[in-house]
Amino acid sequence: MRLATLNTVTPDGQLIVVSPDGTHYAKAPIATLQGALEDWDAAEPQLRAITEFPEALNLADLLAPLPRAWQWLDGSVYPSHGALMDKALGIEPFKPDWPPMYQGVSDTFYAPLADVPMVDEELFIDFEGEFGIITDAVRAGTPAAEAGKHIRLLVQINDWSLRKLAGPEMKSGFGWIQAKPPCGMAPFAITPDELGEAWDEHQIAANLRVEWNGKPFGNAFGKAMSHGFDQLVAHAARTRNLVAGTVIGSGTVSNETYREVGSSCIAERRGIEVVDTGSPITQFMKYGDTVRMEAHLPDGRAPFGALEQKVVKA
Amino acid sequence: MRLATLNTVTPDGQLIVVSPDGTHYAKAPIATLQGALEDWDAAEPQLRAITEFPEALNLADLLAPLPRAWQWLDGSVYPSHGALMDKALGIEPFKPDWPPMYQGVSDTFYAPLADVPMVDEELFIDFEGEFGIITDAVRAGTPAAEAGKHIRLLVQINDWSLRKLAGPEMKSGFGWIQAKPPCGMAPFAITPDELGEAWDEHQIAANLRVEWNGKPFGNAFGKAMSHGFDQLVAHAARTRNLVAGTVIGSGTVSNETYREVGSSCIAERRGIEVVDTGSPITQFMKYGDTVRMEAHLPDGRAPFGALEQKVVKA
């Protein structure tokens, strides 16, 4: 099942169910995705019962499937990305056996085709292609073996980053505030069964095709996480309840074969350049630049749709 | 003006205006504090117009004045606290010219008299007495000179902390997830004019009286911040819009004279013990322990009321 949210006058929009081919939709009997997640066991059968999709879908009419959330937690569990970022940022590697995770701004997830306003081009504007999940309510202390059951929806995310600010904020130990403006979210939030076998050990076995200004930039494979999303949920819920609608990200999708498959963010490519040549070559984004991210399954389907955004001056 | 929120069946409760002596209230014509903050210029005169308080106030009927928020950002701008915590956690000091700040869980602020569930007594349960502010909407890039105008309400906060997890999470550079369960909030959110001259350079010139299991523990003075709340708002808003209802905290209230005035958290006292004797003496909280926090003005008033919580097993 694929869900999306129509832009309406309200901040949470109108929940819709999208046809299997992604071209049409029906309004859901539940107003918002947040509302559905708060009683998912009741909502899911109502949403799945919809089999007629009378309205033509225009992607420009969509908000993010979850336009705002009470909580957004982002992991960093692709080891090849972490290692390169440590080098690029000049951070001393710290390798815990648990997944690094920060809490980011969640009051806004940009629409899939939204222009993204940035206050300063000189702050090293970067994209980060990620996968993510959305939970229903999870009790504090839920173990990983149970946590996977709370993963109700899967999403594809662009975690916008300002790299000039990222290193100093990380060194403070407090995580990122200024370095992390709101994220964008691809059009469709999907139930895990949509992926078939590509939902594999609570990871997304799909290639994340990233294009920067229309040119191929990366095509990393999702199933390379050191910790599956079930473990990320359990980590997040160790000492605190997770409210329904909590969004948890994987961090930048990255593979050890990054020289062949490319990267899901500019900083990683620069990290490779530092390793190879001693200094970075690729520059960060400028106003007017676009980035397009679309995950593809082995059978060619793009279950989340395309996240396509342009950087503009705030 | 003092505002509070009655516990009702809805998660955001019912906004009330509290009498100047704190004993009675009137229901507000706006349902929730979040709603009021989203159009504060319209809401404030309606709330101030209330001068009759027909209902007797029972503090046990209150939620936190803002029971949940889209964003909670906590600074750490009492220099004497930061220096001691670096020592106690074994963190290499990093002293930026900007205020350290992390984003914490905001989907829950505990009621002023709520029991606080913790999953594990062995995680070094600690309180942190703080002041905080609540903003209306702030545009990204708003300078400090303008940011102060967006401070609509002042609050008093207990930032619950699990110290055993705090050091490792801080070393990851990603900030705190597991080490920071939800905060508690004192009964009343107040407009800055309630403080009179004690709202001084965007700081709160009041003593934060902290009692642990009924015994005096600290009485630090609020106006000792390295950055005023106006600067904290500007820092938080440098690259991203702040949604109405953003809560920003000061970090643990602390004075250079901590040996005389005491501390607002156990970790700080332990830090002093480490400095003085080479090892910490005071133990952390146990199930059944209580902590009471009440800020006092020079004239004896307690404008936020008392935050009084008991730790219980989750």
From TrEMBL, chains A, B:
Residues 74-312 form the Fumarylacetoacetase-like C-terminal domain. GO terms for molecular function: hydrolase activity. Keywords: Hydrolase. The keyword Hydrolase applies. Residues 1-68 form the Fumarylacetoacetase N-terminal domain. Pfam families: FAA_hydro_N_2, FAA_hydrolase. It comes from the Bacteria. InterPro entries: FAA_hydro_N (IPR041072), Fumarylacetoacetase-like_C (IPR011234), Fumarylacetoacetase_C_sf (IPR036663). This is Fumarylacetoacetate hydrolase family protein. It comes from Novosphingobium organovorum. The lineage of its organism: Bacteria, Pseudomonadati, Pseudomonadota, Alphaproteobacteria, Sphingomonadales.
